[in-house]
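Worked example

This section walks through a single chain of length 183. The input is the sequence exactly as stored; nothing has been trimmed or padded.
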Amino acid sequence: MEAATTGSSGTAAAEEVEKAMNVLVAIDDSDESFHALQWVLDKILKRSPATEAAAPESSRPVVTIVHVVEQLARYAFHGGHVVDYGRKEQEQNAARILSRAFEICRDKLSLNAKTLILEGDPKDKICRAVEEMGINLLVVGSRGLGQIKRAFLGSVSDYCAHHAKCPVLVVKPPPPSPAKKAH
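Given that input, the structure is written out below as tokens.
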């Protein structure tokens, strides 16, 4: 194990504290993923002195909101043309989702927020982005799938919790309001 050395610039631990927290929030069009974004902004990042407006830009948390679009099947038609069915709608939907999430971040805190669209399998792409971007915390929402659905469909949050190279925060959906329970 390597020992941390102390020099004139301070300890390694102090230098680590000065770095901006790098958070990735995986988001889709579900209420659960927007709840996870809201939760991390309210419960974790809001409490950080680095999110105050007076904090230097370099120490403010960086929140990357990522949306993964699954690759669409390619269809070949007579004449050899290949068409990506639904590509335009998929891009518009991704832009709408990320715009909504970005506005939530902008309205909440003084932090650096950015958006990213990836294409492929959400489980793999999210874990790969965590590693490539040096993320300190991955935040995902939980849809509360039962064991059978999770076994057949798979769970992005479950996969990320086991494969991401950083701590993973799985935010459960809020309990149903009493009005919803009654109906």
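What to look for: Strands lie at 22-26, 62-69, 74-76, 82-84, 112-119, 137-141, 168-171.
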